[in-house]
Amino acid sequence: MRKVRKVRLNPAPKPVFQAFLPDAEGDNVNRMLLRRSLLSLLHLALAFSIVGSWLPFAAHCHVLAGATVDEEFAGDCRAYVVPDQFPAVQPKLVPVLQEGVTFVGTGAVKVVSSKLEIPDPNFTRSDRGGYYGTPGVARVQWTVPPETPAGSRGWIEVKVAPMEREHGFLGSFDSKHTQVRNGKRVFREIVVHRGYLSLIGGRLLYGAIGLPVALLLHTIWWMRQLRKERPALLAPLLPPDPPKLPCTFHPNPLAEWDGYNLVLVIFSGLGVFMLGLVLWMGFISGIFVGVVLVTLSVGLFFALLMVWWMRRVVVTLKVDADSVAYARGRGPLQWITARWAEMVSVRQRTMTHKGVTHEWIEMVFPGHVKRPIYTKTILHYALVRDTVLALSAHHRP
Question: Would you say residue 321 has pLDDT above 50?
Fold first, then answer.
C-alpha cells in the first residue's frame, strides 16, 4: 500500500488580519473587500463621533478652563406630604421649593447662579411614589476657574434645604437624567481641558458613544453588499456540475466575513442597547463611555478570533478518479493525499441539537487520520459530498 504523503511547510506567522488576505493561489478577493470595509467603516465612525461631540452631553461635559456655561435641567418638583395635610401646604409649595432647591458645584466647578422655575403650580398626587409633583426647570450658570489644572473633574449637584420642620413637607427636585454620587444627585459631570486639541479629543471620546450605532449600521450594510456581490465573487471558484475530473474544490473566500460580521452584529447590538440606556437616563459619564468602548473592543476581539478559527478550518480538496488530496486552512497548504482504495472510510455524518441538524463529511485517511469537511468551509458542499461519496463507493465495493 502507498504510504500517506504529507507536505509540511513552516510559513512565517502572519497577523490575524492576514486571514482576510489572499491565499497562495493569488486570490485577491478578500484584499479588495477588506480595503473597502475598513475605509467605509472609518468614514462612518468618524462622522458619528464628530456629530456626537457637538451634542450637549459631550460639549458640556468637556470644557476649557475659564469657561462659563448656561444650561437647563428639566425634572420633577416633588413634595412628600400626608394627603390630609396637603390642602394646608399647597399654597406655599411653589415659593418654598423655589427658595429651597439650589445647585452647587463640587471639585473643579463653581455654580454662579441657579433658579428653579415651576410653570404649573398644580401639584398632582403620584400613585406609586406617594408624593405630589409637577414639572420644573432649573436654569443654572456654572463656571470653571481659569487656573484649574487640565484633567480636573467637577460635578453639579442639587441641594435641597430642610423643609419638613418649618413647612410641614419634604421637598426634592428629581430627574431620571441624573446619577447618584456619594449619596447626592448629580446633574452634570465635567472634565477640564487647557488646550483646544485636548478639548476636541475629549469631546470626540464622548462622541464615540455613538460608535455602536455606526458599527451596527455598517455591519448590516456590509452583509447586504456581500450578499449582492457573492455570486460574482464565487463564480470563478465554483466547479462545473457535474465535475470533470481531475477537479479542485476551493474554500469559501467569504467564510471569514460571515463569522466576523455575525459576531460584530451581536456585540454592536449590545452597545446600541447600552446607548439606549444613556439616552433614556440623559446622563453620561467617563465610566459609562469606557464600558461601551470596552464592550466594542471585546466584540472586535471575538470577531477576529472567529476569523482566525475560520481561517484554520476552511478546506481545499483535489479529487481525480484514483486519488484525493486534502488541505486545511489558508496560505501555504499542507496536503495529505491517498488513493481512494487506501481510504479507511468516507462517510456522511449528522448531528441534531435542539431540532437543528448539522451535516458534515468525515474522511479517514490511512493511519486513521480524520479530516472533516463542514458545510461552511468549502464551496458547493452538496456537490463535494456527492462526488467524494460516489468515488469512495466506486473504489470500495
Answer: yes
d(Cα 259, Cα 215) in Å, to the nearest integer?
15
Provide the whole-model pTM: 0.65
* pLDDT at residue 171 greater than cutoff 60: yes
Quick one: which of 300, 222, 216 has its CA closest to 17? 300
**Amino acid 240: pLDDT:** 77
| pLDDT above 70 for 245 | yes
Residue 4: which pLDDT band, with cuts at 50, 70 and 90?
very low
Contact 388, 319 (CB under 8 A): yes
C-alpha cell at 195: 488646550
pLDDT attached to residue 395 = 81
Terminal Cα distance for the chain, rounded: 18
- Write down the residue that cell numbers 447586504 correspond to: 224
Q: Are 381 and 360 in contact (CB under 8 A)?
A: no
Q: Domain spans of the chain? A: 66-193
Q: How far apart are CA 293 and CA 273, in angstroms?
A: 13
C-alpha cell at 52: 456626537
Half-sphere exposure of 59 (CA within 13 A, CB side): 10
Pick the more confident residue, 82 or 267: 267
* Local structure of 269: helix, strand or coil: helix
Beta carbons within 8 Å of 62's beta carbon, 6+ residues apart: 190, 191, 193, 199, 202, 203, 206
Mean of the pLDDT values across residues 14-42?
59
| Residue 269: all three cell numbers together | 447590538
The set of cell numbers assigned to 316 is 481545499
CA distance 262 to 69: 44
**Residue 243 identity:** P
CA distance to 18, 69, 215, 314, per residue, from 30 (Å)? 10, 50, 20, 14
Q: Do 134 and 86 touch, CB atoms closer than 8 A?
A: no
Asked if 312 contacts 284 with a C-beta cutoff of 8 angstroms, the reply is no
What are 139's three cell numbers?
436654569
Peptide bond between residue 246 and the one before it cis (omega within 30 degrees of 0):
yes
Residue 116 has pLDDT above 60, yes or no: yes
Instruction: Decide yes or no: CATH 2.20.140 for domain 66-193.
Output: no
